[in-house]
Amino acid sequence: MIDSNRPPFGGNGNHLARRVLRISHVLSNAVQEILEKRLIRETAEASLSPSQIHLLKLISMNGDHFVGEIAAFLGVSAPAASKNIDKLARLELLRRVTPERDRRNTCLRITPKGRALVEEYEARRLRALEPVLDAFTPEEGRELSRLLEKFVTTLIRVETIDTRSCLRCGAFYEGECPVRGVTGHCPYERARRASMP
Amino acid sequence: MIDSNRPPFGGNGNHLARRVLRISHVLSNAVQEILEKRLIRETAEASLSPSQIHLLKLISMNGDHFVGEIAAFLGVSAPAASKNIDKLARLELLRRVTPERDRRNTCLRITPKGRALVEEYEARRLRALEPVLDAFTPEEGRELSRLLEKFVTTLIRVETIDTRSCLRCGAFYEGECPVRGVTGHCPYERARRASMP
DNA sequence: GGAGGATCTGTAACCCGGTTAAAGTTTGCC
DNA sequence: GGCAAACTTTAACCGGGTTACAGATCCTCC
Fold this sequence. Notes:
2 copies of one chain form a homodimer.
Chain A: H1 15-43, H2 50-62, E1 65-66, H3 67-74, H4 78-90, E2 94-97, E3 107-110, H5 112-133, H6 138-159, H7 187-195
Antiparallel strand pairs in A: 1-3, 2-3
Helix pairs in contact in A: 1-5, 3-4, 3-7
Chain A binds a DNA duplex through helix 4.
């Protein structure tokens, strides 16, 4: 109240900025460690990398994709994508299919085993987050969601100068994602548009 | 308003949880990509990894450390820490010093060049975040900070069963960090306590 | 309608950072 | 004083990334 009409920055002596920097660093690591890597280890028999599970999630939720699209989605080179696909194919979590339409391409298709793994992983993520959100009142939860979203979309909009960095945002298999509007130049979206009829 | 007295979960049909999962995933990647890796590339002449810059930051802000402490702090094995140290020593960003007290240990000490790099990096991080926070009113900024903090501390408290995962939280070179209270069993803190007199 | 360039995937060789196993020093205890 | 313990480093390996290049297929154009 006393300082509610300060300019957005400055008066705080960067205190807020330093605090947000630190917290978002910890959050970033905690999310990846607790809500992703650990749950992957618990879910998959063989050890999978986050890239590999995101790849599976993409083709599970969004249908068949070409290797080039996968590479753009993961933000890696085509050979790197190919090696990830090799591993997932060995584990029978996906299949390579050569489409008749253009036999240069290779199409990746989820297998039942792969789909089951993705579903199990997503269920575990929900279960893991549940007790965390229980600590928030409904209003707080909505406000958390709103502010997280505003923070990340602003960050991406303001700081994404180069068009090359891919955030593996997965804004694409979940229709109403707010990030989508910001990432018009996302390498995945470009690749996907290019290969769509 | 209409649903403000729902139970924390359930009524929402997991909608909030799914949304938070997705946003926190994107946030996690965006923070690492935009506020860390990219700024490291812009700051350092040679290419450094996030681990390496965190190592430098630790000994720059918190004084000399032994190799074992560094390994615990980074959450990696001692050989991995040693290799990171090799690289930073080659770049003259830190020095190895054998303390007289116990010559089995190796003490890592920041060099002026290393300190300058850390300061430049931190300044860049602040500058990068500034325009993002400018999009928030002061109240929103404080609320963002509060909710981020509550989210991450709850996540760590609720989900950290095993004592082994290190979040590179850096709760240690910044005195008043709220994460500190949650991570009593942090491997870094244990190592640090053990080697303190 | 075939030659040749473009496009897509996969292979080869390499790099970097991680791991475990084991070796090298130094210390402390009996 | 010898031997176990502690700490760091070296060695050998692994996984996932990169670039350069090879192979296959398609498209264009003469």
